[in-house]
Amino acid sequence: MxxxxxxxxxxxxKLVLKPVREIEWEADTNNARDIVELLCFHYDLxxxxxxxxxxxxxxxxxxxLGVCLVTSGGDHRCEMHPRTVLTFLLLIGAExxxxxxxxxxxxxxxxxxxxxxxxxxVEMANNLxxxxxxxxxxxxxxxxxxxxxxxxxxxxxEDFSA
Length: 162
Description:
Order of helices and strands: EEHEEHEHEEE
Shape: globular
Number of strands: 8
Low-confidence stretches: none
Strand content: 35-45%
Distance between the termini: 26 Å
Radius of gyration: 15 Å
CATH class: Alpha Beta
Strand order of the largest sheet: 2-1-4-3-5-6-7-8
Number of helices: 3
CATH superfamily: Cytidine Deaminase, domain 2
Largest sheet: 8 strands, mixed
Number of domains: 1
């Protein structure tokens, strides 16, 4: 069991991270599926009626350093500002990260904006030696990886036959 901190990025005379709450979380790998489960279980991201975007920061061992709400929008769109995401990642000392947002409409299609912003984040983060693991879209019954274009059901069973 690990404790994950949720942060808000606060602008005073400078940008600072303000811890908002702590979450108890147990995951073996913190892979994309684990990140989706974290955001669905603790943030109800699959059930919201407005779009929200989160950044999940990890260290080199894939331990979650923190979660930050980076944008909140309407029912069809929210814009993630690279400055907000990269500031969070730099302040928390991340080496890897996921960008995650929901589609309240439950239309599980990767929009042109989704794809462009994801690849833009990949490029900007690479320039800072931070690895973007994936951009994930969460719907009511499934989630999709923007980088691999694969859709996954929440109800897929894992293969334990190996």
